[in-house]
Amino acid sequence: FTWLFYSMPSQYAELTRNLVSAKRLLPLIQSLHKEELAGGQSRQKPAKFVLRNVTYTYPDATQPTLNQLQLKLDVTAHAKMLITGPSGGGKSTLLRLMLGLLMPQAGTIQFEDADKRNLAASANSMSFVPQVVALFEDTLANNVTLGRQVSDQQLTLVLHQVGLTDFVARLPQGLATPVHGQDGVNVSAGKLQKIGIARALLAQRPMLLLDEPFANL
Q1: Are 36 and 124 spatial neighbours (Cβ–Cβ below 8 Å)?
Q2: Are 205 and 125 spatial neighbours (Cβ–Cβ below 8 Å)?
Q3: How far apart are CA 164 and CA 150, in angstroms?
Q4: Which one is predicted more confidently, 50 or 217?
Q5: Cα distance between residue 6 and residue 53, in whole Å
Q6: Minimal CA–CA distance to 180: which of 192, 170, 190?
Q7: Residues in a beta bridge with 69
């Protein structure tokens, strides 16, 4: 049992970090649930992100990834914005701060629409496609829909939009094919990226945030 004695401190530290993350996410999840019940009536309105003196340092880092960042983004219908910068410059961190997945150690982040709602209350206006898209031990259809009630027509349209139609047609069981696990079909990094984009499109939210969306395409 010596291994247990030595592993307990690290396991306790990991549990503590997860509990802190859960506490941060709980208000966000609750706000999303309330907005779903309200029908999301304000989600089509213009929005504005304002970051003032935002600083964020990762737990194991000695230097901040973002240091006193000042940024204002006006989000209008059909607008496209591209944030560029060197690797490790904080682009992914910025997106996660905007989504409320990370909290800055200093500074403020304001998200406003016509109703002056804050970031947490408006997070349901945004879909996010991360750099690394996770798959679950399930069918391709369930991996794309993530439990949403989606019609066959909607699913077919989105798969066509992201360029997965031919991929699905080549699978032995089509959308019913397992795509993860011991018996799952291999999915390339490019296909994973497209699955992530398909998930975001099915959410039908007015803002789409993509982290390195063309890295594997």
Answers
A1: yes
A2: yes
A3: 17
A4: 50
A5: 41
A6: 192
A7: 54
Residues linked to residue 48 through DSSP beta bridges, in sequence order: 74, 112
Give the type of residue at 142.
N
Distance CA 155, CA 180 (A): 20
Place of tokens 């309330």: 34
Residue ranges of domains in the chain, CATH in brackets: 1-126 (3.40.50), 140-210 (3.40.50.300)
Kind plus residue range of the DSSP H or E element containing 209: strand 207-210
Confidence of residue 31 (pLDDT cuts 50, 70, 90): very low
Please give the single-letter amino acid code of residue 113: D
Instruction: Please name the residues in contact with 39: beta carbons below 8 A apart, sequence gap of 6 or more.
Output: none
Q: Which residues of 175-199 are buried (b: 16+ CB within 10 A; e: fewer)?
A: bebbbbeeebbebeeebbbbbbbbb
Rounded CA gap, 98 and 203, in Å? 18
Q: How far is 169 from 58, CA to CA, in rounded Å? A: 43
Q: Please give the model's pTM, rounded to 2 decimal places.
A: 0.72
